[in-house]
Write a structure and sequence with these properties.
single chain; three-stranded antiparallel sheet
């Protein structure tokens, strides 16, 4: 083509070829957890109960709902080619346009990795070093010796090595001998994969030392999922803690309870006695919840203070005046599909819920009471660029306007002066208007932080591979220490990036009414006014 002279050709031919070939691996690259979940969704079949194991009842329910309501779920099955055959997502040249922002995804992955590798994981290793039964708890009231042995045995039987040996016809004695014989292997560290020699049983316990995490951030108005991190490293920990894993949500449940209360006519200024209550359920069983803090015990405190300081006693007094069944209904309206038991203690968050469900639910607090369902894909085109499918946001109203303003005010107070205040301090120093809620479950098994600004809703969970794997104390075991810093690191980078459309000067709208104003039958009243007091008597007469 006359691009080279003969002399250049002869010269260049003498140089050795240098190849930089790298085989594409689905376990590498950006957003591997998201890509795997998207692959699962696209290729999903119509749910049939017989195809799910007995313990997968909730997954069957979730998939059944998704099949009916989410056009992306089972897209391959629902959208055949013009000739009637099914698309192949690997070989048909489809262009799938996701909502993930590559910059924000990078910041999220960095935030998870940095907090786990530099702070939590070294501290966890130090705490569990030379402890018998580590990384499991040493509290035998929480986990007995027989339960510990059963958990370790169960983990062994779930491993690929055990399954392969069992299929090969090995006896239990032969398998246990093999699991206690040192072999050469590669193991994960945050500094990189290393070669070592361990028994397979020790390698199982070694991997269980690593804390897991789930993080998701989305636009509360469009539902666009901007960042999605399902764990510390997809190559070694492929269980997705955003969509698949469910863990107890602790105090992050309280905004749902308080929303229910606001809808029933309560205000942030209503007061309760801050003492441990004893509440009886419908069967007459007493329940006396514990409280983490000791501030203002014996005093009358208002609802705003109670939520700001995550007070368990006031939540219990609220649910005693309301209804556990209605709290379940409220949470389902928020988009939580997980099974919820309608019991008094539900108000303190013993329910198992996924990060994706929680982020979905909290969009209502950022979006004027409108819940936005997460959107993973905006469009799918064929190999020629023709758009086959487009996907639009889906919203549902779950909070009335007045109740929303009350909740917005209280949840901002949690961040400005309560358990979420750490994001206002170094090293994060975030000044943007932010609402949120921390959550910590019994024995520090789960740490949560849910947060929202006018433009982003994010959720973070951190915990062990099993609930019996956790920090011994609250200093590092609480949500404000385990989960909040991931959000702080993520948002600090987002706000520092001038190419992203997010600013700390954004503001939520301000209410046009008194947040402490009472309402009876839709009539706003001032309980301190003699005229309004007479009006109330007239209404009830």
């Amino acid at each position: 083509e006359d691009m080279l002279s003969r002399e250049e050709l002869d010269s260049l031919k003498q140089l050795p070829l240098k190849l930089d070939f790298h085989r594409v691996d689905h376990k590498e690259g950006p957003a591997p957890y998201f890509r795997e979940e998207l692959r699962r969704i696209l290729r999903a079949k119509k749910p049939e109960r017989s195809a799910y194991r007995g313990w997968e009842k909730q997954k069957f329910i979730d998939d059944s709902i998704a099949w009916e309501t989410n056009p992306l779920f089972g897209w391959i099955e629902k959208n055949p080619k013009p000739d009637g055959t099914k698309y192949d997502i690997y070989n048909d040249g489809l262009k799938i346009y996701t909502t993930i922002d590559s910059r924000m995804q990078r910041y999220a992955e960095n935030a998870v990795n940095t907090h786990l590798s530099r702070t939590l994981q070294p501290a966890f290793f130090r705490e569990k070093r030379n402890v018998k039964g580590a990384p499991y708890t040493t509290n035998r009231e929480e986990l007995s010796s027989s339960q510990l042995a059963a958990l370790i045995d169960h983990s062994m039987k779930q491993s690929d090595r055990y399954i392969m040996m069992k299929k090969a016809g090995c006896s239990e004695s032969e398998i246990k001998t093999a699991f206690n014989t040192p072999v050469d292997m590669k193991v994960f560290t945050y500094a990189g994969v290393i070669d070592t020699t361990l028994t397979p049983m020790d390698s199982i316990l070694y991997n269980k030392h690593f804390l897991r995490s789930g993080f998701m951030s989305m636009d509360p108005m469009t539902g666009h999922v901007k960042a999605y991190v399902g764990g510390p490293d997809f190559r070694f920990f492929q269980y997705d803690m955003v969509s698949t894993g469910r863990r107890q949500i602790g105090s992050t449940i309280k905004p749902f309870l308080y929303t229910y209360a606001m809808e029933e006519g309560y205000t942030p200024c209503d007061e309760f006695l801050n003492e441990q209550p004893t509440i009886y359920d419908e069967n007459g069983n007493p329940w006396s919840p514990r409280n983490a803090g000791s501030a203002r015990v014996g005093e009358m405190v208002d609802i705003r203070w109670a939520l700001t300081n995550s007070n368990n006693w006031i939540s219990a007094r609220l649910i005693a005046e309301l209804s556990p069944s209605e709290l379940v209904r409220t949470m389902h309206n928020f988009g939580i599909t997980s099974h919820l038991d309608p019991v008094m203690s539900l108000c303190l968050g013993p329910a198992d819920v996924s990060v994706k469900e929680m982020v979905t639910a909290y969009t209502a607090f950022a979006n004027k009471g409108m819940r936005s369902d997460p959107l993973f894909v905006t469009a799918i085109a064929d190999a020629q660029g023709n758009i086959i499918s487009e996907f639009a946001p889906r919203q549902t109203e779950v909070i009335s306007e007045k109740a929303w303003y009350k909740m917005l005010s209280m949840l901002q107070n949690v961040v400005d002066g309560g358990t979420g205040n750490r994001i206002r301090r170094a090293p994060f120093n975030i000044t943007a208007p932010t609402g949120g809620k921390t959550g910590t479950t019994n024995d520090n098994s789960d740490g949560w932080f849910m947060a929202f600004t006018p433009s982003l809703v994010s959720g973070t969970w951190v915990g062990g591979d099993e609930r019996y794997i956790h920090f011994n104390g609250m200093a590092l075991g609480q949500g404000a220490s385990m989960a909040l810093p991931i959000y702080g690191r993520f948002m600090s980078k987002v706000y520092a990036d001038p190419t992203l459309p997010y600013s700390q000067s954004e503001r939520f709208p301000s209410p046009t009414f008194d947040l402490c104003e009472k309402e009876y039958y839709g009539v706003a009243i001032d309980p301190d006014s003699e005229a309004d007091e007479a009006s109330i008597e007239g209404v009830f007469d």
